[in-house]
Amino acid sequence: MASDTHPAPLPAVLPDTLQRRGLMLILSSPSGAGKTTIARRLLAEDDEVAMSVSATTRPIRPGERDGTDYHFVSEAEFDRMVQENEFFEWARVFGHCYGTPKAEIRAGLKVGRDYLFDIDWQGTQQLHQKAQADVVRVFILPPSLEELHRRLVGRQTDSPDVIAARMARAQAEISHWDGYDYVVINDDVETCFTKVREILEAERMRRTRQTGLIDFVRELTRGA
Ligand code: ADP
Ligand code: 5GP
Asked: What is the pTM of this model?
């Protein structure tokens, strides 16, 4: 049989090890809908995902670690970072500054690391404006307001006043659902987690993120 009828030899790089660019996965929801639950599972079960670590000027709390929970910086250092355009976005919250530093994330994205962001709709808008091609926005909805209330009570982290304030804000937050690429209703937690996983897997497969494809296809079709 003529050699040109044989398939080309298998390329050295297999498709599941192809180089890819990472992505920025944003999870937003009204407080209590379950984004922390979903985020923790993703971080525990997927080695390629890391939490984005913000910089802040607020004092470190007992149990927190610099570089893991936040990068704790002085006001002067934070100002310098703002001046030198080192943040994707930043905001002043309860008298302290918080920002998402660009450098670490940009370096990680290049080598295929995905970053998880637990931010509200305003932060989502800013991040999307700055890094549209890398951002995937997921909004998590509760199945009902009654169930949202049950979850906030069941979590046992907030006083009745704080729960009432969170419930009062919930409707305003929900009204921003249409600024997201995906909306998932967190009724059953397993089903919701699976759906978020599937979104992540599908987004990783986008052609534009699979930076190793050019070499792979070149090799695949070499001598064809
Ligand atoms: P958020 O981070 O959005 O404020 P959490 O992840 O802290 O919400 O979830 C709020 C509470 O609801 C937690 O006690 C969590 O265990 C619980 N919870 C999350 N998802 C579900 C679900 N699908 N069904 C029942 N309880 C849930
Ligand atoms: P805490 O001080 O309790 O950790 O956070 C206070 C608030 O700051 C939370 O609402 C949190 O979402 C917000 N925050 C934390 N990091 C950032 C960030 O990088 N950017 C913005 N805009 N807000 C942040």
From this structure: 0.89
